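Students often ask why we bother predicting the structure of a whole assembly rather than each chain alone. The short answer is interfaces. A chain on its own may look different once its partners are present, and contacts between molecules only exist in the joint model. In this exercise we take four input lines together and write out one structure for the complete complex. Read the inputs first and try to guess which parts will touch.
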Amino acid sequence: MAGTRFSYVKTFELPDPLLPETYMVLRLDGHGFHKFSDTHGFAKPNDERALQLMDAAAAAVMDEFRDVVLAFGESDEFSFLLRKKCTLYNRRQSKILSTLVSFFTSVYVLRWPAFFPDTPLLYPPSFDGRIVLYPAQQHVRDYFAWRQADTHINNLYNTTFWALVQQGGQSTTQAHETLKGTVASGKNEMLFSRFGINYAALPARFRKGSVLVREVPKVEPELDVDAAGGVSETDACQDAVPPTTSAPSKRQKKVVVVLHEDIIENQFWDDRPELLA
Amino acid sequence: MAGTRFSYVKTFELPDPLLPETYMVLRLDGHGFHKFSDTHGFAKPNDERALQLMDAAAAAVMDEFRDVVLAFGESDEFSFLLRKKCTLYNRRQSKILSTLVSFFTSVYVLRWPAFFPDTPLLYPPSFDGRIVLYPAQQHVRDYFAWRQADTHINNLYNTTFWALVQQGGQSTTQAHETLKGTVASGKNEMLFSRFGINYAALPARFRKGSVLVREVPKVEPELDVDAAGGVSETDACQDAVPPTTSAPSKRQKKVVVVLHEDIIENQFWDDRPELLA
Amino acid sequence: MAGTRFSYVKTFELPDPLLPETYMVLRLDGHGFHKFSDTHGFAKPNDERALQLMDAAAAAVMDEFRDVVLAFGESDEFSFLLRKKCTLYNRRQSKILSTLVSFFTSVYVLRWPAFFPDTPLLYPPSFDGRIVLYPAQQHVRDYFAWRQADTHINNLYNTTFWALVQQGGQSTTQAHETLKGTVASGKNEMLFSRFGINYAALPARFRKGSVLVREVPKVEPELDVDAAGGVSETDACQDAVPPTTSAPSKRQKKVVVVLHEDIIENQFWDDRPELLA
Amino acid sequence: MAGTRFSYVKTFELPDPLLPETYMVLRLDGHGFHKFSDTHGFAKPNDERALQLMDAAAAAVMDEFRDVVLAFGESDEFSFLLRKKCTLYNRRQSKILSTLVSFFTSVYVLRWPAFFPDTPLLYPPSFDGRIVLYPAQQHVRDYFAWRQADTHINNLYNTTFWALVQQGGQSTTQAHETLKGTVASGKNEMLFSRFGINYAALPARFRKGSVLVREVPKVEPELDVDAAGGVSETDACQDAVPPTTSAPSKRQKKVVVVLHEDIIENQFWDDRPELLA
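Now the answer. The structure tokens for the assembled complex follow.
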């Protein structure tokens, strides 16, 4: 047959399974987002629309891939935790990596107009990603703590930096100089004394990043993302566990919710033992 | 500092460089495109709009990444050849794979309305990908021959199958039965005698797939993709080689062009020694 | 300089670090030992000299590489557990694998005459090896249980097989036939009723394999291997923990000892929490 | 069955095939051979017995593994070229690496007494190894050129260094100082003017290293290794190509021979096109 004499080239495709029963963390980052955010007029230091769009794309990933049990996002990056027992695509690295990054990108572009109704996309945004394996629960805890600590550090710096520029009239060069060598307490003090900003009162989204988990929604449904056309009960996957009573089951469906709370301390993890099961 | 005690988790990020001086072929495939094409009303056996959108996304990849010197597409898959000496991202596999698949996806979604003006995207399309290394020129030749032979085999089958269904009134089950065990000549004969279709006269795009290379455009610019808002001289990257005379240089810029010609025989490769350099 | 223009070839050496904080198990097997054991007249079903030589080589590996905390051997194979925190050779896979297999082989050949004084080596014995990573304690427990269960299964089969041949006068073909489809209890019964062999009374070395750990020796030193010139207090490495009293410290040095006891149940592991630390 | 519930641990054994149709170079190095050579009284700057033992072990590797078509050795290292089409052990990296390094080590220890009749082995010598892939002929040429250039550089340095110490009465510290910053011509001149040594007249083995290939022996058989009990026509494998005439075929069997000639220039390779086939 026509194709037969060429098909030996398939033997060059080497297997790439990931070690079983380890936690996978897939982290993706915006590719050249410094320029992308400038070109598309993102607000500084944080653009709420852009962050919500990231959250919506991440929530869609979790709706599509049940093995993703947790996601954490800040700025133009998102980290996804796949459960230890995950056998998605037989744990083939390239397949998992490319599929999830592609899906995230697709949602990001598709939902852009819902979050930026007045800002057309001038060129295609893209993301790169990698998968890191963690053998133990503590590593996963520390990974997400590392990202949330990074969120805090970056946000405090950026908030102070842009206050110096936008309210203090400094050039960006001057602002960098002003901040050189300062510690966290110094920046907090500077924000408060010079600009009247109480850092702790800023939106939790900016200070804590976004934490996505599946939850049985409370009576008041989570509207965080919904408002902008994101996740809703309707398009969220149904939890695999069937309702155990004949009572109305709507309430028992888990949906992806977006939280902005601490994931460094024990409370978050103690409340959700299934994440590290 | 806050993040320091957690940052050890970075040591779990293992290096993944690809062997130097080997040809990389990145192949991506539509994820669940059987359902996607049904949902979005793709014409059978070939949807010209969908194929042109694939070509446009591939051309954008080539405009963005100069190391991609050749691309070949059929149906919902595309293969990209990165030149042997490519040092993009220090040849880190995950970085190259995720970035290119993400960029392709982004363009696919972004340009969708230009190719499907009357068909809104109902859900996010996505692609998976993998990188295969080939050590020698012959392997690369045979890889692309394999894909083009596959295009022919699939298209002949699908063309006959849908003729039996659409013109012959068979059910899809009957059509599969009719074709069971037939060879190429039998299908050609069946197309001609029962449906008056001369297979060789069908559009080359369907029979040969799409071949993307960089070329100095002829006086009549390549309009294949342009027509639908795709590649044009304007957004194509300028060739690195500067013009050597003071004559008008516009003609000497290479642009990505879409061909539908044979890449199995020697001619194509003999004309473009730079592809395998 | 002379070598400079060629030294680019070093860039083809790719990194191969193993995932941090996972247990490494290196298993090595005799290469072509069916023929090797025949050529060198190994006793059937078990050759005590050959097993002791294996133990001596494994003990030497543990004396040389402190990261190896446990070894288990049967027949012509040995498995080594490297502790989770091991950073030997920066966890480079090829370096660890080749060095340990080479060292084991070297000791095997070097000490051969001490165990086979009347049997010269007719050709070089060799071993192949591989490293497998296990993320959690339970995996390590189950790995070693798997090998010890295998020891039992093989030994029971071989013991019955060779009784049929050596005492029962069957050909090897007949003996295979006789054993086809039998279960453990059937073989035990056959051994006892036909050959007067009480399987449970056979040497523990044959039934349980060899388990090597580091221990503070009891007043009566472990002589198992010593007798044949193997491990002794003299050439064993000193434990890193210094003596905590002024009493004579000789007793407190840990040495590698060879045990033949159960490692499937909890007791062995409960007594040695440091193995899985 | 007893082993069944544990056998899942096998799923952690990941595949490790090497890219097809690339040249493999396996390089092994003595582990801690600075101390080993001191302890066993190796002559400085070169110990002929030790080099011949290395050659004998390498020749045995070539006799055992027909896929090894070339070997190059200097000091305590050896590089083996496996032909591009090699499918040994399905190209599994760990299997190939461990088996060849183990076999080399085994021969080294087994034949030690033949080369060092008066020097018993005081402890087990060992080697580490790695496999590097090269996609093209030129890379392989350059790899071996790199090693032979290294041989020259090291040997010229060591010869001058030990002349300064042994004949010039310098301490090793002084000798290092004397040589600091010198170039090749300076060392040649120093050897000749101060010690009457014509570097070019030193044994080719020291200056060029050892090159092992398979050849149809000339009427006078290669005795280089034979003399010390190494390679001989008797234990060399028969070449796969059958004799093409009815003439006595003994002469046409290829055997491994040890050469000490230039492999940087074209001649060596032009004479042996099969090496890079």
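Check your guess against this: Chain A touches chain B through 53 residues (CB under 8 Å).
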